[in-house]
Design brief:
With about 350 residues, the chain is mainly α. Helices cover about 65% and strands about 0% of the residues. The protein has 15 helices and 2 strands. It has a two-stranded antiparallel ribbon. Helix 2 runs antiparallel to helix 12. It is globular. It starts with 11 loop residues before the first helix and ends with a helix.
């Protein structure tokens, strides 16, 4: 069985509509990609590598022609745990191995036509999974949101430690984080809701630049965003045994998330996509992610709905999302360094 390239012949009107959808998606999703990099405990730019490689390649092969495949909070948190014992200077080669292993496992499941297994996942399990993920996501951002770095052992204890030591919270950092959240909530109640992340990022970045608060950390304090595309990363075989079990876990988490897309979002012809085909498409996307050192990717329900809401109706919407992300990094890469870390935490 081979990966099939189908669904590319569309009308000129659909093609240009998908280009606009991809442009909007790229602009809106770049802050989220950076935030996922931060959530995974790696260089935030690696979150954008996932969009450039994973979103673009997966869009070529998924059975769902509009499924958005990207790094998610779930894959980012799982990546954080997978890299917890690996030194920071080894994160890039570790991500290369992790992405390849996740992709290979997904491809195997897809070629064995095991997509039917997603039918046995109950709503209660999915609800519990997503609720737990939401709690972990919030707790994982407390440090960047408050400017207080706790040395406690886990997210729950670090959060409690932050509350106990509330006097050490940096007021300016907390203000920017809360401003980000309030802006998103307020804008989501208007006709500009699809741009809420983008507007919040721009406004808070401008405020920090004008006020010049030295205590508010920005992306540039942790990494340099080069105006260059990611380079080819060769896997270090010595890391395979250490990362194979985390890779299997990440693959399962991502596929479970994607099952919601396969079962609820039909293709433009009215037919529902083949879950096994979506497994294979996500597998191809993760192999591509591994070759550039990004965060593992999976089907995103929110990203898929955003593609639909911005007029996307074919594979070209997600393909152009990845390509426009690459163009944005080449054109305005250094400006990304000015984004405050509490803004990304607030996202």
């Amino acid at each position: 069985m081979k990966l099939k390239l189908t669904g590319f012949r569309v009308s000129r009107k659909t093609f240009f509509s998908d280009l606009i959808s991809g442009l909007v998606m790229a602009v809106v999703s770049i802050p989220g990609g950076l935030a996922n990099g931060l959530l995974a405990g790696v260089n935030p730019i690696f979150g954008l590598y996932s969009m450039m490689a994973g979103t673009t390649v997966a869009a070529l092969f998924t059975s769902s022609v509009i499924m958005n495949v990207d790094s998610t909070s779930a894959t980012a948190l799982a990546t954080l745990d997978a890299l917890s014992t690996i030194p920071s200077d080894q994160h890039l080669p570790a991500l290369a191995v992790l992405g390849l292993l996740v992709g290979i496992f997904m491809l195997i499941l897809g070629f064995l036509k095991l997509g039917f297994l997603v039918r046995f996942i109950s709503n209660a399990v999915m609800t519990g999974f997503l609720s737990g993920l939401g709690v972990l996501t919030i707790l994982g951002q407390v440090g960047d949101l408050t400017g207080y770095s706790s040395e406690a052992a886990n997210k729950v204890v670090r959060t409690a430690d932050t509350v106990v030591n509330w006097r050490q919270v940096d007021e300016a950092t907390l203000a920017i984080g809360l401003m980000t959240i309030l802006l998103i909530v307020a804008i989501n109640r208007t006709r500009l809701e699809k741009y809420s992340f983008l507007i919040a990022v721009i406004l808070t970045t401008v405020v920090v630049a004008l006020v010049d608060q030295p205590t508010v950390a920005v992306v540039g304090d942790t990494t340099q965003v080069l105006r260059a595309l990611p380079s080819l990363q060769l896997p270090q075989l010595s890391l395979v045994l250490k990362l194979i079990l985390p890779a299997v876990a990440i693959a399962i988490i991502a596929l479970v998330q994607a099952a919601g897309v396969s079962s609820s979002v039909p293709n433009p012809d009215g037919e529902y996509p083949d879950p096994s085909g979506d497994f294979r498409g996500q597998g191809a996307g993760n192999v591509a992610v591994g070759l550039v050192g990004g965060i593992p990717v999976g089907g995103s329900m929110s990203g898929t709905f955003l593609i639909q809401s911005t007029g996307g109706s074919s594979r070209w919407a997600n393909i152009s999302t990845g390509l426009f992300t690459a163009v944005a990094v080449l054109a305005v890469g250094p400006l990304i360094e000015a984004i405050p870390l509490p803004t990304l935490a607030g996202l």
